[in-house]
């Protein structure tokens, strides 16, 4: 009998891997259920490459996105690029990264986003939807996941770097801050007290990590700040700051903001990572 991997089986395998089942155990279950061992190995290996882009067995602290910083690595192989580890903080979990994006990639993302920029909004507190807020004076837009080849390549790199499935990522958001614009300190997780949160959580659960990628270098100002730990990460083209949060709570110390741009302008691309598959 010819065996082949149906979309349903693929989805089931993906869910098993994402919920922490080891790839080797999945292969054993599949062979016990009558699958040819070679095919089972191939199916699981393909999914690991497509989805995790890392090893499902690699420990991820508390099930969060996290670069592999074992042995004090200074460079992380993200498949098509070696990413520099510039600084780390344990609590809150913050990792500053270099060489994440090439100059060409930054410029291509800005060029594709520029004609689609609108005044940024924040999640409304009292009703469903979003609203303009004086705490956020940037303009922004969202790409679809894999909307163009550059975005798709960068998303695959991020998945491998942070060992988190592409499917759990929201579409990349691009923000532009003109001189004087800022994003006042906030949390990126969804607040259970807000009216829209229940419906937002249906599309992939809570956010558990944020990657802010700098697409240009403002002349002065515009750092990403973490007031709880008095950290400021300067915006430098191609670099990024990653932080994760295990719970939607201030105790994660992930309060952060975009400081006012003092001279020049600032462009960033933000990738938010959900606990489940984002749809
Ligand atoms: O642009 C930033 O530095 C920044 C700061 C805080 C971006 C975000 N938050 C965000 O996109 O959530
Ligand atoms: Zn934020």
Describe the model:
The chain folds into two domains: 7-50; 70-274, Jelly Rolls. The protein contains six helices and 17 strands. The longest helix has 16 residues, at 37-52. The chain starts with 6 loop residues before the first helix and ends in a 5-residue tail after the last strand. The strands form four sheets. A nine-stranded antiparallel β-sheet has the order 1-2-3-14-10-17-8-7-4, with helices on one face. The model is unreliable at 49-62 (pLDDT under 50). The chain has 279 residues and is of the alpha+beta class. Bound molecules: pyridine-2,4-dicarboxylic acid and zinc ion. Zinc ion binds at residues 186, 188, 210, 256.
